[in-house]
């Protein structure tokens, strides 16, 4: 059985989820229902991915109860603001075909727009209405987190950020830990860029595991929530098969050294242009 973490509001979240960025809406019913049947119990989508409809269909098609799959979606930048966010949420759950979702996130703080505080207040309203069991943020930096917490007194349950062995985010993780906010890793495999790393390859050979499995195991042992993306059933299964081995202290020290200030593969939270 897969590990489950408890968020600061008491909600339980499976530590591995399926990331579905770049999975086409038309392919999602087949691919994502197949993933659920393979054992995934957590799916991470977003309005901007354009596949909420297909993900919802997949959840209905899979051989599990709705309550056994943890579903996350996110409010996109151009839907920010109090009223817009309430409307965007209604549209997301309508596309998903669900009455409630497990986790709703603000996708980016987008500081230049300065609407994230009002957006956060809308998420609090959505949680209070019972339509999202948990609420959090994504790509927030420490000042953004301090502002929403200071203004509302409500802690986000998670902050979903780019995080992988080449970009380990120690400062943000220390802040999250001090406040009881869970860290979710997006692009946990470095968007695929780490998959030919020779150091990780050596660790994989030692354990008889692939590089992807070594990296996912590293996230698990660091207490992170990890959402590797794959559109391939064989690799989806491979990415779940990480509970029959453990990285040792030496492996963890070695992987720790791969951290780099230039390791980011995606957008910088302070300069989101979209
Ligand atoms: P694919 O969808 O064809 O499997 P990240 O989650 O860090 O963004 O990385 C996603 C990328 O890594 C995708 O290109 C995905 O391709 C690839 N990928 C995911 N799992 C594996 C795996 N086990 N082995 C090789 N490539 C993988």
UniProtKB/TrEMBL annotation:
Keywords: NADP, Oxidoreductase. Substrate binds at residue 107. GO terms for molecular function: oxidoreductase activity, acting on the CH-OH group of donors, NAD or NADP as acceptor. SUPFAM superfamilies: NAD(P)-linked oxidoreductase. Residues 16-258 form the NADP-dependent oxidoreductase domain. It comes from the Bacteria. It catalyses: hydroxyacetone + NADP(+) = methylglyoxal + NADPH + H(+). The record marks 74 as: Lowers pKa of active site Tyr. The keyword NADP applies. The keyword Oxidoreductase applies. Belongs to the aldo/keto reductase family. This is Oxidoreductase.
């Amino acid at each position: 059985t897969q590990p489950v973490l408890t968020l600061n509001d008491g909600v339980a979240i499976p530590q591995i989820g399926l990331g579905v960025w770049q999975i086409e809406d038309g392919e999602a019913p087949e691919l994502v229902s197949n993933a659920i049947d393979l054992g995934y119990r957590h799916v991470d989508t977003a309005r901007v991915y354009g596949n909420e409809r297909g993900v919802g269909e997949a959840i209905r098609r899979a051989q599990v109860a709705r309550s056994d799959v943890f579903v996350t979606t996110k409010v996109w930048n151009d839907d920010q603001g109090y009223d817009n966010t309430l409307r965007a949420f209604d549209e997301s759950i309508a596309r998903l075909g669900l009455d409630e979702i497990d986790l709703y996130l603000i996708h980016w703080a987008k500081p230049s727009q300065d609407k994230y505080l009002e957006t956060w207040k809308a998420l609090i309203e959505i949680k209070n209405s019972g339509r999202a069991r948990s609420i959090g943020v994504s790509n927030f930096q420490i000042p953004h987190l301090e502002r929403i917490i200071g203004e509302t007194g409500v802690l986000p349950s998670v902050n979903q950020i780019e995080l992988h062995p080449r970009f380990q985010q120690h400062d943000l993780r220390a802040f999250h830990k001090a406040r009881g906010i869970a860290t979710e890793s997006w692009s946990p495999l470095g968007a695929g860029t780490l998959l030919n790393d020779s150091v990780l390859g050596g660790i994989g050979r030692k354990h008889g595991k692939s590089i992807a499995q070594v990296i996912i195991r590293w996230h698990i042992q660091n207490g992170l929530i990890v959402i590797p993306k794959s559109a391939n059933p064989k690799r989806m299964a491979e990415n779940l098969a990480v509970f029959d081995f453990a990285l040792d202290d030496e492996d963890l020290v070695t992987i720790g050294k791969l951290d780099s200030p230039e390791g980011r593969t995606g957008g910088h939270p302070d300069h989101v242009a979209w």
